[in-house]
Design goal:
single chain; mainly alpha; 4 helices
Length: 115
């Protein structure tokens, strides 16, 4: 008789463990899996976005070179009087405008790629 009781207790214990896994363990397992997938996806998403940004910057530099933007800027700077130009150079305004122009063209190409 005790063997029968032990078998019934073992079956009940297995049933309880299965019920605990379905009730709480499956949720924990699914949560861990989804969290791992989201982390993996975000890492690869940002790596792809970084590669696209480097590509966009290269394309923007070539675009600015082909449009000969620097010649137009040099012509515009040459048309200013010397005192004004020296003050702007002192405050590094030409460098700042170059950075802003490069960033805006890069942003344009980046949005063109769909990012």
């Amino acid at each position: 008789m005790s063997v029968f009781v032990d078998v019934v207790n073992a079956v009940v214990d297995v049933g309880q463990q299965v019920s605990d896994f379905i009730g709480g363990g499956a949720y924990a397992l699914l949560t861990k899996f989804v969290a791992y997938f989201i982390r993996w996806f975000m890492v690869h998403y940002f790596q792809a976005k970084l590669a696209a940004l480097v590509f966009s910057y290269d394309v923007a530099q070539q675009l600015m070179a082909s449009l000969n933007v620097s010649a137009y800027l040099n012509t515009a700077w040459a048309s200013l009087e010397s005192r004004t130009l020296s003050m702007l150079v002192f405050f590094r305004i030409p460098d700042a405008l170059n950075i802003i122009l490069s960033a805006s063209v890069t942003k344009f190409v980046f949005k063109f790629l769909g990012f």
